[in-house]
């Protein structure tokens, strides 16, 4: 069946059905050999699907179906995902521009759906395929940074008198909570992520003091961003303070000092195991 898909030119209307079939197969209890075969067929089919995409807004249903399919593939330990397949997944996530949906009317719901689906995929990758990610930390954290940026600067170009609705804030909070959970998982691999953590921490702090209309102005959003910063501080070594103080402005330095003080007081483990 998969061979027939591979030989066929993928039509736009076929993508959700193809992804659904792949999901069903990926959820099966496969042998190692069949898992390896599925990985190869999945890679070939995805390459054809990528070519058929034109934009996120036009292919939203297809892209969401593909992400859900990738989640199922990553969860099944019997599917031996290769380095090439993981590279394709990360390239796909990197090229997605979720902010494109905000430029269109009545696309807010789709924006949050695709954002949360990407976070779910990243969580699935770090949970089930962390060995493949250890060699691709910068690419993986690039996806994380884009996810965080899209939340922190959600509709940042809006007029000053226009505030975000309660529904939007709840959706942002829900999306950011997934990123916070992802950051907790990343923190369990502190050694591998130690090199990139200072840059992500600097980005998060700068987002909070940005002159744009950042969503961190809202306390319920800011608290989750701060929790992400605490995990990043936990990963970083003692040199990160000098790095941030050297490359940041005064506002960022003050935020970093407050975060560090709160981390040492409330979050740093000081007891005995």
UniProtKB/TrEMBL annotation:
<protein>
    <recommendedName>
        <fullName>Nucleolar 27S pre-rRNA processing Urb2/Npa2 C-terminal domain-containing protein</fullName>
    </recommendedName>
</protein>
<dbReference type="Pfam" id="PF10441">
    <property type="entry name" value="Urb2"/>
</dbReference>
<feature type="domain" description="Nucleolar 27S pre-rRNA processing Urb2/Npa2 C-terminal">
    <location>
        <begin position="65"/>
        <end position="272"/>
    </location>
</feature>
<dbReference type="InterPro" id="IPR018849">
    <property type="entry name" value="Urb2/Npa2_C"/>
</dbReference>
């Amino acid at each position: 069946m998969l061979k027939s898909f591979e030989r066929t030119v993928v039509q736009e209307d076929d993508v959700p059905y193809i992804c659904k079939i792949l999901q069903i197969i990926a959820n099966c209890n496969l042998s190692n050999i069949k898992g390896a075969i599925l990985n190869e067929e999945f890679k070939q089919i995805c390459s054809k699907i990528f070519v058929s995409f034109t934009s996120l807004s036009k292919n939203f249903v297809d892209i969401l179906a593909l992400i859900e399919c990738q989640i199922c593939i990553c969860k099944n330990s019997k599917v031996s995902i290769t380095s090439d397949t993981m590279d394709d997944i990360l390239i796909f996530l990197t090229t997605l521009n979720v902010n494109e949906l905000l430029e269109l009317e009545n696309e807010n719901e789709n924006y949050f759906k695709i954002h949360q689906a990407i976070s779910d995929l990243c969580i699935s990758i770090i949970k089930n395929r962390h060995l493949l990610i250890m060699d691709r930390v910068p690419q993986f954290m690039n996806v994380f940074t884009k996810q965080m940026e899209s939340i922190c600067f959600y509709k940042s170009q809006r007029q000053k008198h226009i505030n975000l609705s309660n529904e939007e804030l709840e959706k942002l909070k829900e999306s950011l909570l997934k990123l916070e959970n992802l950051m907790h998982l990343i923190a369990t691999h502190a050694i591998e992520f130690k090199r990139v953590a200072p840059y992500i921490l600097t980005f998060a702090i700068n987002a909070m003091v940005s002159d744009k209309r950042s969503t961190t102005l809202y306390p319920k959003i800011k608290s989750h961003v701060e929790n992400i910063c605490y995990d990043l501080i936990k990963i970083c070594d003692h040199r990160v303070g000098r790095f941030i103080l050297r490359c940041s402005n005064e506002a960022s330095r003050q935020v970093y000092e407050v975060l560090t003080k709160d981390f040492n007081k409330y979050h740093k483990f000081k007891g005995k195991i």
